[in-house]
Amino acid sequence: MSQFDLSRFAINQITTPKWTLAEAIEGYARQGVHGIAVWRQYLDDYGVKAAVKHLHAADMWVASLCTSAWVNQTDAAGYRQALDENRRIIDQAAAIGAPCVVMVVGGVGSDKDLYAQHRRIHDALEELAPYATAAGVKLGLEPLHPMYCGDRSALNLITHANDLIDELGDKASGLVADVYHCWWDPNFEQQLKRAGKDRIVTFHYCDWLVPTRNLRDRGMVGDGVVNFAQIRGWLDEIGYDGPFELEIFSELDWWERDHHETVQIAIERCGPYVGPRIARP
Taking phi first (over 0 means left), then psi (-120 to 50 degrees means alpha), and beta for anything else, what does residue 265 get? Predict the structure, then answer.
């Protein structure tokens, strides 16, 4: 039995990529973690009905469904297909009880026009917002570190995400804040407070390693330079009471480890930062 209150703690499935969805559900629950962020390729492999049944049987709750389809297609047909795929993903999120779909929207398109991609992101989110609202699922806008702007996402600043949420409305959208992507931003604290407790739909933990060896080289909490106590203090100030997810991409380390060990260490490292309100340092 863990010494920590893990009621708000979820492990993002990409942290243990060698496990199927069924194995992840069992592996997390076995060590007392009953929150999971589901990745859609594993969900597609398992099937929505089987996943719902297994999640319920294991007393699991879902923090989010990762991730959306990119909307960086420069041809009209490809763009419409991406929107249709995102509607399917929203339906899947609703079926498994995920409060949000994490929107990773694609980097610069083949036209190499960053501003055109910003317009595509805006227009896609605007079109998807009513569908998400009707499904009871929020579009979780996750700003990614600028090093991903060329491929994964041209939504790179928490300020930009908050601006979009202002337009889309809180019923349709929310903020997915990830310390890996935002810890360096001078506006991080101010933008978290701007968002407030109700706009943040889930919060991602992992650490920034020095040196970072490649774009998939994130660290376990405590192994890098992120000040988690300080950031948790900001969240406590605004009264945030939502989920905390551990999400690690780690081709050179954690992905190669025994996943049972990863879950055990995750609990030990994240435990102090996921429970009830903590005192600010």
Answer: alpha
